[in-house]
Every structure is written in C-alpha cells, then in structure tokens.
Amino acid sequence: MVGSSGGGARSAKKSGAKAARKPIRARHVATSFDAASPRERFERQSLPVRLARMGLTTGFDIWVRLSTACCRRLGWHPRVDPYVGYGTESYSRLICRTVLAPPGSLAGSLSRGIRAALTVPAPRTRVKIAIDSTPIETVQVGDSELYDAPDSRRNRSSRYALSDRSGFLDLVAEHSLAPGPHFVTYRVDGRPLVPGPLYTVASSTGIGVISDVDDTIMITQVPSMFKAAYNMLLANPVKRASVPGMSVLYNRINDLSPGMPFFYLSASPWNVERTIRRFLEDHGFPRGPLLLRDLDPRPKTFVPSAVQHKHEFIQQLMADFPHMRFILFGDDGQTDPATYAQVVKRYPGRVLAIGIRRLSSREAGLGVPGRSSAASVPEMDVPVFYGSTGANLMKTMLPYLEQARRDGRL
Fold first, then answer.
1. Where are the beta strands (DSSP E) in 125-258?
2. What are the boundaries of the signal sequence (predicted)?
3. Which one of 100, 203, 303, 352 is at 20 to 30 Å from 111 when CA atoms are compared?
C-alpha cells in the first residue's frame, strides 16, 4: 500500500510537470498599419505614386536577395535580435527580428546607426520561443507582410514561429502570468539561446505613461534633417545626450504610482532599438518597452509615416489596456501636439495629462536667434503642460499629478 501510494504521488508529480509545461498558444499580429486604411491603399494612389512604390519595393526585395546570398556565401547564418515585450497576465506581445550575422556575433551589441541600418534580414527563419522556459506554440496564418488573406492550408501548430520577409516576428501569446518582469528566450538553429525582457502589467493598473523619445527625452534634433541623420547614423551611440531633468521627472512620476508602465515611442527604425534601450538605462529612465518603426517598404502601406506610426501604436496600447488612463509626453518640434489632440478626441477620458517639451531655435533647426519653434496647439479637454526641460515641466505638471493622486485619479 505504501509503495503504491508513493508510485501514485510520483505519477501525480509527472502529470503536474507535464501540465506546467503545456505549450503557450500564440498568433501572428496584424496591426492596423499592416492593413492599409482606405485613403492609403495602393490601388487608390495615382499612377506615378504606384509606379514609384512598386519600383522601391522591388528594389528593396532585390537588395535583400542579393545581400542574403552574399552573406550566406561568407558563412553568415541567422541570429535573433530580441526586442522588449509587454503584456498583461493573460497575453504578451513579443517582437524580435532574425538577421544574418557572422559566426560568434552576439545579439544586442552596440554599433553606430549606419552599421545597424545595413543589417541584412534573414527571412523565413524558424525561431523557437519560450516564456520562463515554457515553449510557445504558434499558429501561422498567411503572410502578414504581404497582407494576403488567411490561408487554411498554411494553418499549423508547431514549436517554432516563422519570421517574415524582412526578418520580423510579431506575436501575441496567450497565457497566465503573474505581473512583473519575466524573461523570453529565442533560439535559431546553430545559435545559443538569446534572452529578452518581458514586462507584464497588471490588468488592474490604472495609469501609464506613453512618451516620445526623439527630442522629448533624447536630443536628436529631428526637425533638422541633416543633424537628425548624423545623430542617428554616425554619432557614437554611447554619447547620446539626454534632455536635462527628464529622467528625474519620469522617476518622480513613477514614484507616485509604483508599477506604472512606461512605453517609449520613436520613429527610429527597429535596427537601433538596442542603442535607445542602452540610452534609457544609462540615463536612469524607468524601464519599459520600446515601440519603434519598420522602415522596410511594404507592398500596400509602403513606409508608415512618423505620425501614422504614433497613431498606430497609441491605438494599439489603448486597445491592449482598455481600463488604463495615460499621461502623454512629446515635443513641439514636429506634430506631437496635433497628434495628441486627435488621441484626446478619439479616446475621451483616457488621457489624464499631456507634457510638451518646447524645443529651442537651435534644436528646431530654425537658425534664427530668439525665434520660437512652438507650433499652434489645438484646444484640448485635458491639461497640457509646457517646458524646455524636465525641471520646467516638473514645476507645473508634478503638483497637478500629486493632486490627482490625492483625488484618487492616479
């Protein structure tokens, strides 16, 4: 009887271990810029625009094929570059990219932007993914990068995911995870496991921050095309300058509601994700996922504009966290005030406050001493705070947020 009971316990333990290792189901993400809006659809463009887009997308495809063939002849093989994931207790959004790299090269190593921009994708690469050692099981539905209809013949359950024609892999995994930091591991054949962070936000979290990066917290001088290009492509990545006082302001806001998630948006390409993440770490900003832009030309949506990119990801976050209100941060060098005004109008009650950093004449590329770069700001139903530094914003914005916490709105 005792031996039988012990055998039953061992059997129960094995069954429990098997249940604990049950694969996580996942599906490929189709964001709204994967499916073009009616105004942006390829067939509605003029003939010259269609011909130009076809020429550029065809040229890009030829470059990918030639560079891929050349790299494979040199003995390079696929490597995974993981990006920061995020989600709630019930799902996670995981983003990574497969690229061709020499043997022994490490993912996440810093390099100048021009080198990162010339990264050669490894299309259609199998990637095995696990969250906290539990494998992800994926369902492939069509090819999101070509925007074809779901093809039941391609539906399959497997222990790997397949990257797209540009090497990107964007998945939503359904699971049950405790809030807090977790780790995702990625593996391709012939390479060691590559870890990546996963931020799991409690679904009950009431407030979050969405912040622009370029010229809001990191000085890039985006309004000046040549200076922005130099900073992105040629500048030393470890010497990126932070806007004075912004990291202090963000950490003070984070102290008001510990566990508040921070999401960072940038129109920079995914190739420089590691550089921006290193910048956030070096300058002491609260940790959080980066949401960058895919600059590869697409057959139907082509290259999403910076405005479209921000709209799409803010829309995605609003849908991902339907009960969360947000504090938005941007600058007046481009279109952030107008973009945020549209967000406030589209999502009434979902924006608690907006902070706008005013750029100096030099940063805005105006070249005229004393001339303001501020653009006209639409009327909004939420308080908007302005300042050229974090300290300026802190004087007016922080008291408002502290009062909001006392009132139970934070």
1. 126-131, 134-139, 157-158, 161-162, 168-174, 180-187, 194-200, 207-212
2. none
3. 303
